[in-house]
Design goal:
Largest sheet: 5 strands, mixed
CATH class of the domain at 4-77: Alpha Beta
Shape: elongated
Radius of gyration: 27 Å
Number of strands: 16
CATH architecture of the domain at 4-77: Roll
Distance between the termini: 48 Å
Order of helices and strands: EEHEEEHHEHEEHEEEEHEEHEHE
Structural class: alpha+beta
Length: 352
């Protein structure tokens, strides 16, 4: 396809047809700050932090929505652009708590990063600030809309990614806020607690309750793994501190899910450290379960299988495999049933 020739900050670029100014800049490593933009979501142009100066345009334009056209000349860091971005950031900070030292997202907040980059320590526009209550009783997501910047990423994630549309923008002007129908609790809405709104939130407005007070972003070691629930093969990043899982976050390069998760994948990992989790085999002796070695447990199971086969025949045995196992493990299971036990009574939980 014919490329679109544009110039950004003096650098000539052959952009993809249909790409935006932001996408063209990102492909060659030119940084344009954003808040409402997220690569997994359709662009909206809500925050105006990505404003750039385009020659022969009367006003500054949002790079995330403005299409790249042949011969375009763009300036991303002119004095006019920098002043406009500072103005936007100051307006956002005029209604934003400055509690970064105790905020869960300290070190992982895009608004904090931009304020640091542009040297904004305080706002020139003091005035009334919102004082929303943080009282949603759901077990997964803490909603602190005092920290919301109305970027609408969460709204787009709920609509575009999960197709649920549990949340939207309510009211207008200073009273505008993100909420459910009738501004109720999440568990009273169609919300499925997939957590994608949390994954795309650029500030501390939406955070997992499971991680509260358990560590800072820079303290976590991220380990990419497969979700242990169904057989789709979604990849997630486990955030680990001191040998314990603190939270699960999206792995955006996962081939099966591209960062998307369900409620189990994002919040259902707490069984790993649950005190009721079995860590050793149990066998029943004198009517009670007692701990045993693996050799004892496997020998007992093998002897019971042999008794069943000798007493009632091979068809008295059945094998039920799991979607949580690998294809190789499931293959071994059916091979054991057919070759060792001599039965074709094999089924799989994904078919039930």
């Amino acid at each position: 396809m014919t490329k679109v020739n544009i110039t950004i900050d003096g650098q000539k670029i052959a952009a993809r047809p249909g790409s935006t100014v932001l996408e063209a800049a990102q492909e060659v490593g030119i940084d344009i700050p954003t808040l409402c933009y997220h690569p997994a979501l359709p662009p909206e142009g809500a925050c105006r932090v990505c404003l750039v100066e385009i020659e022969r345009q009367r006003t500054l334009q949002p790079a995330c929505t403005f299409p790249a056209t042949e011969g375009m000349v763009v300036h991303t860091c002119s004095e006019k652009v920098v002043e406009a971005r500072k103005f936007v950031l100051e307006l956002l900070l005029s209604d934003h708590p400055l509690d970064c030292m105790t905020c869960e997202m300290n070190g992982n907040c895009e608004l904090q990063d931009l304020a640091y980059e542009y040297g904004i320590k305080e706002t020139r526009f003091p005035g009334e600030q919102h004082t929303y209550l943080v009282d949603d009783p759901n077990p997964f997501i803490e909603r602190d809309y005092n920290k919301c910047i109305l970027c609408r990423r969460c709204v787009r994630a709920c609509s575009y990614m999960n197709g649920v549309e549990a949340i939207g923008v309510m009211h207008r002007g200073f009273q505008a806020k993100i909420g459910t129908a009738f501004d109720g609790y999440l568990e009273d809405s169609p919300c499925e607690f997939c957590g994608m709104c949390v994954a795309v939130c650029p500030t501390g407005a939406l955070t997992p309750k499971q991680r509260k007070g358990k560590g800072r972003e820079w303290e976590f070691k991220k380990v990419t793994t497969l979700c242990s629930y169904c057989g789709v093969g979604c990849q997630i990043d486990l955030n680990i501190k001191d040998g314990r899982i603190i939270q699960a976050t999206s792995h955006w390069d996962g081939p099966a899910n591209h960062g998307w998760t369900c409620v189990k994948g994002r919040f259902g990992w707490d069984y790993v450290h649950h005190p009721d989790r079995l860590t050793k085999p149990l066998i029943k002796k004198d009517g009670a379960f007692v701990e045993a070695t693996w050799d004892e447990a496997l020998d007992l199971v093998a002897s019971k299988f042999r008794e069943v086969k000798e007493k009632d025949g091979a068809d008295a045995f059945g094998a039920l495999s799991s979607a949580k196992c690998t294809n190789e493990e499931n293959y071994v299971m059916q091979k054991f049933a057919r070759a060792v036990m001599g039965t074709n009574n094999v089924d799989h939980c994904a078919r039930l």
